[in-house]
């Protein structure tokens, strides 16, 4: 919900990005005192929570980022068996089958998994991955733009193809971006295995813009982004249901509403996972880190750090998250096995329809 998400913005007040906070020193990796987390650009945790892990485990954390979630997963697959680190965080249900089929992860049942609903554990027989958070990929809209134009914002996927929203939508590329793929899957779930292609032809004719990743779409092209200071000219963007929470932040909790809204009829439900990398140099430290990611302490830190929802049933979301972050009731889903069977073909077909 987030990377979010796991919200995937780089302008979150009070967030400490681990890669900037901690750096491994020369002999730490050699003596087993450093555990390396490979992830996407949006992984973050509060300083206090991270210090708790250090104090309890005795390990320091080094973070290696590989761009957007899709690019990070691709890199993990390329390095399978000889990984860049010990734990990978950031593979979601849209890309999970590829990582599992490629043998990227080693089995490990993390502590606290008994507090996670079974529906969020697609690999529960082997425990090669640990669910960490959930979030909804949805189209967000810039309220000020639509109020100024006196036009109702879109609510559904059908709305996005209408003339009133021509040249207004920007989406990340599903071939390189997790939220981009989530949005493509939302259209497959809505229009079926053949109907989605006709829908995307309509979107292309209606001026949809495609960029490589979420950060470019949201921070550079979206007009409602605080992180991008509203410099973009697209008032519609594929992002997350929790993005309005990030736009409000902790510094302005008295607002009646967020400056951005969510088109709740456009959403796709994501589950984000972490896993012990096969061939990890510090397997023991990697297991401790996975336990930490599923701990109640870390889970309750998640919402305002990565703007996603915790998977633990006993973990609470903060009030500001509940106030400004809608929870779409009818977010689309697809069976993981169907995604696994058709994902590459869907992406190839989408590419030929939209960007070639």
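Sequence proposed for the structure above (356 residues):
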């Amino acid at each position: 919900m987030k990377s979010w998400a796991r919200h995937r913005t780089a302008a979150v007040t009070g967030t400490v990005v681990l890669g900037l906070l901690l750096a491994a020193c020369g002999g730490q990796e050699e003596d087993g005192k450093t555990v390396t987390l490979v992830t996407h650009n949006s992984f973050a945790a509060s300083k206090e929570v991270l210090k708790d892990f250090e104090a309890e485990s005795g390990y320091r954390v080094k973070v290696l980022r590989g761009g957007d979630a899709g690019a990070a997963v691709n890199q993990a697959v390329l390095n399978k068996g000889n990984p860049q680190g010990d734990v990978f965080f950031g593979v979601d249900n849209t890309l999970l089958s590829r990582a599992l089929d490629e043998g990227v992860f080693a089995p490990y049942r993390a502590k606290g998994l008994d507090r996670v609903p079974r529906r969020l554990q697609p690999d529960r027989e082997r425990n090669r991955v640990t669910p960490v958070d959930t979030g909804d990929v949805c189209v967000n809209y810039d309220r000020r733009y639509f109020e100024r134009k006196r036009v109702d914002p879109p609510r559904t996927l059908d709305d996005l193809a209408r003339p009133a929203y021509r040249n207004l939508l920007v989406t990340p590329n599903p071939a390189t971006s997790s939220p981009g793929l989530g949005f493509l899957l939302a259209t497959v779930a809505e229009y079926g295995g053949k109907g989605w292609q006709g829908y995307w032809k309509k979107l292309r004719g209606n001026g949809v813009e495609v960029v490589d990743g979420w950060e470019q779409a949201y921070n550079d092209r979206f007009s409602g982004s605080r992180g991008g200071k509203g410099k973009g000219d697209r008032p519609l963007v594929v992002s997350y249901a929790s993005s309005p929470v990030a736009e409000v932040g902790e510094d302005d909790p008295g607002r009646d509403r967020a400056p951005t809204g969510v088109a709740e009829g456009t959403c796709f439900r994501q589950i984000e996972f972490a896993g012990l990398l096969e061939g990890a140099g510090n397997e023991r430290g990697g297991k401790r880190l996975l336990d930490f990611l599923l701990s109640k302490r870390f889970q309750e830190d998640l919402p305002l750090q990565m703007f996603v929802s915790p998977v633990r049933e006993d973990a609470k979301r903060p009030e500001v998250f509940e106030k400004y972050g809608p929870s779409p009731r009818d977010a689309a889903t697809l069976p993981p096995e169907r995604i696994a069977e058709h994902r590459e073909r869907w992406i190839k077909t989408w590419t030929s329809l939209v960007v070639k």
